[in-house]
């Protein structure tokens, strides 16, 4: 995929024709050679009108992030037929994501032009009927597919034949569409399989007057101007990135002229621009939004050329400094080159460099990181600080398909992790350190409270992940209901705090043999022998069931090198290797003990 990404980055793309030509060129390249181990996703798009360009542009957008998509574009205005027929090409395609784009003109029909030929009562009945119809279509997809569903809401019309009296009606034309949108949102608010895409807001941001090219609408029933399709596909990527496990985890920030205006080494704490005054307000609000990202689980770090004491003085003394030391998981404040600092940050936090987003006002620093570490997302911060906040809000790489309790506490957990590092430095050896942590491991079977987190861990955990199999929440729910599977979560606590649910296992059971399908730990708890406690639990449960053998699989990826020797080092013997997949076996006649310094609590 790297060659394809380079191919995309080298092209100048100005319009839909450039996307189409690039799509053709990449297609020719793929005919000759398919990339190895590329992440893939299958996306189906169903629409009520002609969707020119979506296939080509969405394909390029996916390839741009290193994901190779397969796309199914439904036939013109055949969305109902494809959804209702369980033998349709939609279900044969077996999509991971279904995008449903029904436009307001199609859903309103004759009411779009003559809404007041029917009464308020009839309009309310129309609303109820359309809501029921849409819900029924979604239900049918869910019956026949485990795909995530992205359902467009409806663009609220700008016109009304009643003009200024429109909002005086009991249940007016505009209100009926607004009510339909509100009820769609409320209906699917707690549905983890269905997401409502706010197309009305998207249209407002683009401009409802210009969202459609009227001539192309009359010529070909094209209700979205081609020039806006790339922006729509960019919005879709906010959902596709977490589905493909390609969301980012950490923002790495410069300090001078990024978190505050001015240079601390020259201006001092009192002289930098930060506060409610016009020059300081852009930096103040930039920090406020960063804090809101921290609160939802985005990790923050610092990469700055500065004297540590002078920089920390701002955090400790400035009255308008929103972000504090405890909000940062790593602080590389020194005179080293920023490339080395980026690598040190990734190592300290224990995440891949492809999880990093770099924000720095200095163009040279940005270019250095971009060339030396192309896997890092480098944000082109504008010269004008008043645009910093807008730029930050526009980054869609931090989305997740659900936010768990662990996500909300992640920033605090990483601050506690820094304390553990300091404690480790003070310990004389690793055994003293591990024993001094006082770790408590709680192993709990999958349930309605931890299903989402287990799914999220399979999606996001890369380093200590034996098979890197990715599962949606619906998959975990099905596994947990099946007696042939054991699905558990692992919570880790110690003297410095609660790490939350940071591990999971999925084990397939049979009478004589158990097979570990998924075995993973978050990078936050790697190296603390938590994995041995989890394995000891699985061995114990398998023995209770009178199984004879425990099978473990290892599927190598670019990132799970830390997991490679686990089975070998824990008494398993290699049975076979097939296309790099290793299969290991543990004789359940042998004893396997959990580390004595870890307290294990089992909840069934």
Could you tell me the radius of gyration in angstroms? 27 Å
The pLDDT mean sits at 93
| Cα end-to-end separation | 44 Å
CATH architecture of the largest domain: 3-Layer(aba) Sandwich
Description:
This protein is an alpha/beta fold and 604 residues long. The chain has 24 helices and 19 strands. The strands form three sheets. Strands 11, 12, 13, 14, 15, 16, 17, 18 and 19 form a nine-stranded mixed beta sheet that branches. It is globular.
Fold blueprint:
Layout: H1 2-9, H2 16-32, E1 39-47, H3 54-64, E2 67-73, H4 79-84, H5 89-93, E3 97-101, H6 104-108, H7 120-144, E4 148-152, H8 173-187, E5 194-197, H9 199-206, H10 214-220, H11 229-243, E6 250-253, H12 264-271, H13 281-295, E7 299-305, H14 308-317, E8 328-334, H15 338-349, E9 356-360, H16 363-372, E10 377-380, H17 388-393, H18 405-408, H19 410-426, H20 430-437, E11 440-445, H21 451-460, E12 464-465, H22 473-481, E13 485-494, E14 497-509, E15 513-521, H23 530-544, E16 549-554, H24 566-569, E17 573-578, E18 581-587, E19 599-603
Parallel strand pairs: 1-2, 1-3, 3-4, 4-5, 6-7, 6-9, 7-8, 9-10, 11-19, 15-16
Antiparallel strand pairs: 11-13, 12-15, 13-14, 14-15, 16-18, 17-18
Helix pairs in contact: 2-3, 3-11, 7-8, 12-14, 19-20, 21-22
